[in-house]
Amino acid sequence: MKKQTSIGYFTVLAVLLAIAMSAYWLSAGESKETASNIFLAIVIAGLPLPLWLAQSLPLARGAAKASKANIRLESPEVLATLDKINALAVSKGGIVTEGKPYVAGLVPAGLSQGTLLGLAASAEREAKHPFGQAIYQAAIARQARMQPLSASNEIPGCGMEALINRMPVRVGKAEWLLEEGVDITADLLTRADQIAQRGQSTVFVANGKYCRGIIVLDDNIPKETTDAFTQLQQQGIQIVMLSGDSRRTANAISKQAGIDTARSELTDQGKAREIKLLQTHGCTVAMIGNGVRDEAAMAEADLRIHLGPLPEKTGDAAHDIDLPENSSIVLENNNLSDFLHLSKLSHKVMDIVQQNRIVALLFWLLLLPPAMGLVKTFGGPFLPPAAALTGQLCASLMILFNSLRA
Ligand SMILES: Nc1ncnc2c1ncn2[C@@H]1O[C@H](COP(=O)(O)OP(=O)(O)OP(=O)(O)O)[C@@H](O)[C@H]1O
Ligand SMILES: [Cu+]
């Protein structure tokens, strides 16, 4: 958008300059015909067509290349922003990790493992959070005995509460259970800390006021993901993980994944604040988020990246590409290394834009002074409009061919 208005400015300037100079030469005794030629030559030489092509051609070329690699861009201008990105914010679940958590251990307190799992799964039956779903699936796989629930309520960022046998059963993070008045023994809290230091997540299960144990959840970190992080860091992009999980778990995972900074125990709004904080520190931030809970943070980021294929088309052809959650970039191959390739492409494209702008500038410097009559003051001719046109075409062609290298 900004580019568009500056193109408009340059056009107005060229016309004003043309009027002023032809009026000047008319008053200096030149014929009307010469004056109108001067007017034409200045307008043609001053038109910002090459300057406009300088950016739009390489960007369009880059966007076409990206599209071939199954990378959808909101607009080609996304590449210009991407060139400036120096921080990448990522969510933990589903971005750093595979996003397929599984129950990796049970730490019951005074009951059997099966009973603990069955109790938690009974509460998690309708859970949306991947942890809840993993617990429910594990209980089915292990044929743990489940009880009917009369009501349940999932509290985002905290856990699940359900009414089972007229008793409130809660499954979630320790801080939340403690707030709800649940007693958690120091021993269990220590166990959870030790588990978290391995990069696993823990959720506590409470029946009424009593904590019945811990469920340990694990989620793999794909090697391709850590490789992509390393290479992005080599390109000068710092990786920041934003997580709702505990500090110990988040720190351990970020260490395993080779991530620079981890921010943990964050709410939706907390994640959004972290993005703003990065920006006030001078960072241009891209974010790869995960689902509805990251929408607030995504909205703050300079670039919003969606990892994974586009949702099925609903059949209305009104929008040719309907990017989810206002994404700027969709990596349809669900591959983080595509972001790396796109980032490299953006640097190449913007280098070419820079060269093109120099070409456009040089031709201006070459054409405008003679068109204005600078050579005439030294006894030479005015620049004929046809020569101005040839010069502009020449600049545009040079820019076109240079842009093909993108
Ligand atoms: N249905 C649930 N069952 C059990 N625990 C839950 C549930 N929903 C949330 N929690 C607890 O709340 C914590 C925070 O959840 P949140 O969705 O904010 O982050 P996360 O999924 O752990 O991490 P990230 O945001 O990095 O992917 C979880 O780590 C978990 O302990
Ligand atoms: Cu920074």
Automatic annotation (TrEMBL):
It is found in: Membrane. Pfam families: Hydrolase (PF00702). Its EC number is 7.2.2.8. The chain crosses the membrane at residues 7-26, 38-60, 358-376, 382-401. It catalyses: Cu(+)(in) + ATP + H2O = Cu(+)(out) + ADP + phosphate + H(+). Keywords: Copper, Copper transport, Ion transport, Membrane, Translocase, Transmembrane, Transmembrane helix, Transport. It comes from the Bacteria. One of its GO terms (cellular component) is membrane. Gene3D superfamilies: Calcium-transporting ATPase, cytoplasmic domain N, HAD superfamily/HAD-like. Its main location: membrane. One of its GO terms (biological process) is copper ion homeostasis. GO terms for molecular function: ATP binding; ATP hydrolysis activity; copper ion binding; P-type divalent copper transporter activity; P-type monovalent copper transporter activity. InterPro entries: ATPase_P-typ_cyto_dom_N (IPR023299), HAD-like_sf (IPR036412), HAD_sf (IPR023214), P_typ_ATPase (IPR001757). This is P-type Cu(+) transporter.
